[in-house]
Amino acid sequence: MRTLMWLKQMLDYLGGAADEPPVDSPKFLTAPIFLGLWWGALIIMVVLFSGQTSKFIYIDF
Amino acid sequence: MISSNAASSSGKKFLVSLGLAAGILIAFNLLVQHFARNSVPRVLVRQLDATRGITHLALGNSLIAAGFDPSAFDASMAPRPAVAFNAGLGASGTVEHLMILQRALQDADPVKVVIYGFFDFQLTDPPTATLTDFFGNRAVAFYLDPAMALRSYQMSPTDRIEFELLRHVPMMVERAGIWGNVEKIRRAMGAVGLPHADTNRFGRAADFALLEARSPNDFASQCAVGQTAALSEPVLQMIADAHAHGAQVVIVEMPMHPYHQSHFYALPAWDNYRDHLNKLVEAQHGTYLNASDWIERPGEFVDHLHLTPSGAQDFSRRLATRIREMAPGSVTTSSLR
C-alpha cells in the first residue's frame, strides 16, 4: 500500500499535479536541469500523439 | 531576507528549467524541419520546379494523384510532343491547387493545358477553413504561399492570427508528418489478431467511403444546394491564371467506382448539377469533360474513389486521346461530354 501511495505521489509530481516529490525519492528529481529536460520531453510527447480529431484518417503525408 | 534569497534561488531554478525546456523544443523544431524536407507537398513542389517544359499540368487532390499517369498520357499524345506532370496532392483543397498552379506557371515554358480533376462538389464548395484543417498536405498553405492562404481562405479572425503565428513553428506546421508515423505504428499494433484490412497509399480503403455522401437523398440535397452556387473563387482564379498564361483549362469529372456511380452520379439531381457546372465552366471559356464513367470495372479502383495504377493508365490514355483531338481555342464543352 505504501508503495502504491509513493507511486501515486511520484506520478502526481512528474505530471505536475504536486509541487514536491514523495519522501525518499531520488534527489535529481528536484534539480532544475531534470525538470527542464522532463517538461521539454513531455511537450514533445504531446505533439507526437496529437493527431486528427476527424474520424476519417488520411496518412500519406 | 531568507525568504527573499529563497525566492531568488527558486526563480533561478525556474529559469534554468524553462531555458532547458525551450532548448529542447528548439532542437526538436530543427529536427522536424530537417525530416520534413521530404514531406509529400515539399517533394511535389521540388519536382515541379525541376521539371522543365511542362505542357500538360494535372491538378487536383488524391483522385488526380492516384489517377493520372503522365507516362501513359505522354505516350498517347504522340506524335505531338507532350510533357505531362501530375501535380495532384492528396487531401488538399482548391486553394492549395491554386498555389501549385501559380508555382507551375512561373516556369518560362508555358503550360498548354491545365487539367483539373474534381470530386463531387469541389468546384462550388466555398474555401472555408479553420486552423485545424491545415494538417498534413494542406499544411502546404503555411509555407508555399501563406499570403494567398490568408487572402483566399474564409477564416475567423482568431484563426488568421494563429495561422500567422504558427506558420513559423515547424513542429506545428509539420505535426501531421510526425503523427502519421506514430499512427502507422498504432494501426499496425491495433491490427494484431484482426482480419486483414485493405489499405492503399492514402490509408485504409474502407475509410474513404466516409468521404462519400451518407445516402443518395443526402447527396441529392447537396446537389440542390450546389445548383445555385457559383464556381468557388480559387477555381475561378485558377481558370483566369491559366488563361492569362495562354493555357487551356479542362475540368475533369474524375472516374468513379461503380458504387459511387450507381448510388450518386446516376441521380437526376447530379445530372442537373452537372449541367449547372457545365454552364459555369463554359462561361469561363473552359472545357468540361465528364470522365466519371470511363472506368467501369470495380477492380480498377483501390477504394470507392481512387484508381489502381492500371486504371490510371486507362484513364490517362483516354484523356490524352480526347485532349489531342482538341484544337486550341475551338473546343466546345458539349463536344467532350
Walk me through what this model shows.
The complex is a heterodimer of chains A (61) and B (337). Chain A is built from two helices and no strands. Chain A is mainly alpha-helical. Chain A has one domain. Chain A is elongated, with a radius of gyration of 17 Å. With 337 residues, chain B is of the alpha/beta class. Chain B has helices at 2-35, 40-50, 62-67, 70-77, 94-105, 140-143, 146-152, 157-166, 170-173, 175-190, 216-226, 233-244, 258-265, 268-283, 309-324, and strands at residues 56-59, 84-86, 113-118, 199-200, 203-204, 248-253, 287-290. In chain B, strands 2-1-3-6-7 form a five-stranded parallel sheet. A two-stranded antiparallel ribbon of chain B has the order 4-5. Chain B is globular, with a radius of gyration of 23 Å. Chain B starts with a helix and ends in a 13-residue tail after the last helix. The chains are: A mainly alpha (61), B alpha/beta (337).
The percent range for helix content of chain B is 40-55%
Order of helices and strands of chain A: HH
Please tally the helical runs of chain A, counting DSSP H or I stretches of 4 or more residues.
2
Mind telling me the CATH superfamily name of the largest domain in chain B? SGNH hydrolase
Could you state the oligomeric state of the chains shown? heterodimer
Q: Helix proportion of residues of chain A, in percent?
A: 40-55%
Estimate the mean pLDDT confidence of chain A: 86
Query: From N to C, what is the helix and strand string of chain B?
Result: HHEHHEHEHHHHHEEHHEHHEH
Strand content of chain B: 5-15%
Taking strands numbered 1, 2, ... along the chain, how are they ordered across the largest sheet of chain B? 2-1-3-6-7
> Using only CA atoms, what is the Rg of chain B?
23 Å
The tally of helices of chain B reads 15
Largest beta-sheet characterization of chain B? 5 strands, parallel
Annotated CATH architecture of the largest domain in chain B: 3-Layer(aba) Sandwich
